[in-house]
Amino acid sequence: MRPGEKAGCTWDMLKELVREKYYPSYYRAEMERQFLALQQGTRTVDEYEREFTRLAAFVPDLVRTEAQRAQRFIDGLFPAVRHNIVGPGTQTYARAVSIAQEVDTSIKREAVRDRAQPSTPVQPFAAPPALPAPQPAKEKKRKGKGAQTDRRTRQRQQPIPPCPTCGRLHRGECRVGEDICYYCPEPGHFASRCPKKLQ
Questions:
Q1: What is the Cα 133 distance to its own chain's centre?
Q2: pLDDT the model gives residue 101
Q3: Spans of all domains in the chain
Q4: What is the pTM of this model?
Q5: Top-confidence residue, 168 or 23
Q6: Residue 133, Cβ neighbours under 10 Å: how many?
Q7: Of the four listed, 73, 146, 147, 159, which is most buried by Cβ atoms within 10 Å?
């Protein structure tokens, strides 16, 4: 210190002077905006934590305490991760990060396992197969029971492709969306109240 100078510069004042010189107020305002909008999104927890730490350095007032820092971190996590770590024991930032990493790893393992298992499409209800076109009476008599049994066996052996309209497995014309009975293919009522079924 030179003679005649006042000894009034504190460490906090020096930090503020350096911050103002290298990080002007407009830059800090932009970093604050980014910090407040920060979400994990498609990042891993580790990537999100690095970005959180980088931006938090510009906004020390928003993360003064360990609990504030932990809560801000948790708030930006992906919902599936966040819902699994909220609760007692996450008051420290380090603990919140650790739990988030464990949950993130667990979710990824489950996703890999689910992809490895073949999935069968869930069908809430399946429309009965469409009725085959009626054959003339003469043809039925000529063919006899043996021919009909053979035709049914062949139909069962061939795989039924999914319907392009409803996605279910059935043969013939798709009747989904039509106001018809799936039991007797007549319009005006549904299978649950079909007069032919109730007889």
A1: 44
A2: 93
A3: 11-114, 137-198
A4: 0.50
A5: 23
A6: 6
A7: 73
